[in-house]
Structure formats: C-alpha cells, structure tokens
Amino acid sequence: MTSIAVTLMLVAIGGFIAFAIYLQMKEQARLERLRKSALLGNQARQLRRYLDDLPPQYQPKDMRIWILRRLVATYDELIELQADDSLRRHRGFFIEELQQFQESKVKRKAKPVNDELQITELRRLFESFKGYLEFAKQNKKIDPDLYVRYQDLFTFYSYRVNADYHVYMARQAFLTEKFDKAIELYKEAISQLQPINENPEAKVVIDGYQEIIDEIESDLALQRQEEELAAASEEDDQAEEDLDDEWSQFMDQNTFKKKKHF
Q1: Mean pLDDT of 123-150
Q2: Would you give the DSSP letter of residue 176?
C-alpha cells in the first residue's frame, strides 16, 4: 500500500511538473507570438512611412511596387499570428493600392527640397531604408540584384538631395531674373554630385544640369548682345539728333545774318 501511494504521488508530481512545463512552453509561445507581432507591426509602419514620406523623385516605380508587396506580405504574416478583421481590411486596402499604382500611367510629381532641415530628415529616411534592405537581404525577402540596385540608388540619393536643394534655389533665382545667381547655384548642384560622378544616375543628372547652365548662359549672352546693340543704336540716334540740332542752329544763325542786311 505504501509503495502504491508513493508511486501515485510520484505520478502526480510528474504530471504536475509536465503540466507546469506545458504551461511554461505555452506562455513562451504566446510571448514569442506577441514579440513577432510587435516586430511585424513595426515593419509595417516603417514600410508605410517609406511610401508616404519618400518624395517621388527618390521612389522609382519599381521600388514603390516592391515596398507595397513587402507591406502586403508583412500583413500576411501578421494575420497568420492573429486572425483580425482589421488586419485583413488593411491588407485589402494595400492590395488595391498596389493594383492601382501598377496600372497607373500618371507620372508622380517631384517634391521640391526647399529646406536644410528637410535634407537632414530625408537623409535619416534614406539610412533607415538602407537598413531595411539589409534586413530583407538577411531574411531572403529581396532578390540579390535588386538589393544591390537599391543600395546604390540610395547612396546616390544621399548626394542628390543636396543637389536638389541648390537646384530649387537656382529655379527661384531664375524666376526672379537673377540669371547669374541661377547659373552659380546650378554649378553648385553639380559640385554636390562630383564625389559620385561615375555613377550612371549621377551622370544623367549632371548632364541635365549642364544643359540648363549652357542654355541660360546662351540666352544671357544673347540678351547682353541685344542690350549692347540697343545702347549703340541709342548713341547713334543721339549723335544724329545732336548733329541735326547743330545744323538747325547754323541755319537759324545764317538766316538771321541775311536779315540783318535788309
């Protein structure tokens, strides 16, 4: 009887321990789901921020499509962890946004970079996106070639953002007819891209800025030439007018002398 009691007690203790281990494992699994859900939620907010805050000139169409696809995939993972109608609804919105953007032929308008604080914020966003690219690469969420392309692109953007700021000021100078200042600012924009002038994207932008400089300088030279010609013509007209005045005075004096003989 004593051995049976001991056996039952050991079984009970073993069962209790097993149940405690089960509860602990269940709690760990729950905490792991919460941790993963929080991580995925942060990723979703991060991706949404890239979509909303990266100006169109720093967000090529293929990249925006990739971000939207990553956002949908992130919501798929969230829904697996917690079946939630609001998550499914948001996922549906993103799929609709993705489809509309893929089918759209409208070119998104560039947003001017008109403030130095804006440059600082954009650079932080660029670094954040490059960090997300690293995460996507490590977790095999991005094609290796695409990873290299986007990394190179954002290295270029970190220089271009300063150039875009000087171009904005150059356009303002041009609109107020400060053409020499506009040329100076366009040249400064080019100098901002000189450290990466071998980058194919940078070459295209530099060539475009140089064409604008050449056009302004050509128009300015023509304008100055026209001003010089107008000034020369005005001097000729003034000289001719002075000569006419002298001739008129001579004729008047001659007539007066003739009248004195009467």
Answers
A1: 95
A2: T
